[in-house]
Amino acid sequence: MIRAWGITDKGAVRAQNQDSYYLRPEGDDLVVAIVCDGMGGARAGNVASALAVEVSSACVDELTPEDLRSAPGEHLSQAAEKANEAVFHKALHDPECRGMGTTMVAAVVCDRKAAVLNIGDSRCYRIGGEGIVKLTRDHSLVEDLVNRGEITPEEARQHPQKNLITRCLGSELQARTDLYEVELREGEFLLLCTDGLSNTLTDQELLYETLHGGSPETCCRRMLDIALERGAPDNVTAVLIQIQ
User: Can you tell me the distance from the alpha carbon of 15 to that of 165, in angstroms, rounded to the nearest whole number?
Assistant: First the structure.
């Protein structure tokens, strides 16, 4: 059995929520989740994330559960590519949307298998009794610096250019997404979130709230409340998926 919950909020500082998400519970053994974080100005970031979620979720909604189970990674990649094309052409032809783009992290979870796709710095974590693991790799300047050993992960959290991403949907005609496939265990969780959450709570705090902070049903709300208590300088979105 699989259960899922989601939440999004503009945070404590931003005037507008430029995050968007989609969640498709499909019976007891299939869930699809998509989380996007837009960028490109006061209006365009909102347009980019909403358009990406609209187009990618429409692709998913055309598929039967059997389609998704047969090739979840392939269908996720196709949905992201169509979203990329839509954002790219909107930015190209609408002067008010020039330069806009959006991150994306998405997952199809069938039974105890998951396909996870990402581009940008929205993340997917795997959380369970063995701890918390970041399944996705941020496409960002600070992630590159960490991988080269020039700064530590702790320094990356405070780096003045921590929000500078190196890939996003809409910046190129073809999206350069990463795809991961994992086997999940009973009792484990997947957490998909934008950097408004991961920049405000540490990985250990995400782990604690998911496993020990209270019921799974209220976990996303609890994490959002902590972010708001700390000033939530960015929009915050979280989707939690539980394998039972």
Answer: 22
CA distance 189 to 210: 8
Distances (CA, A) of 187 to 31, 69, 202: 16, 21, 22
* Angstrom distances, CA of residue 158 to CA of 75, 116, 154, 162: 36, 27, 7, 7
The DSSP element (H or E) to which 101 belongs, if any, is strand 101-102
Which has the higher per-residue pLDDT, 129 or 27? Answer: 129
Domain boundaries, the chain: 2-243
Give 165's DSSP letter. B
Binned at pLDDT 50, 70 and 90, residue 160 comes out as low
CATH class belonging to 2-243: alpha beta
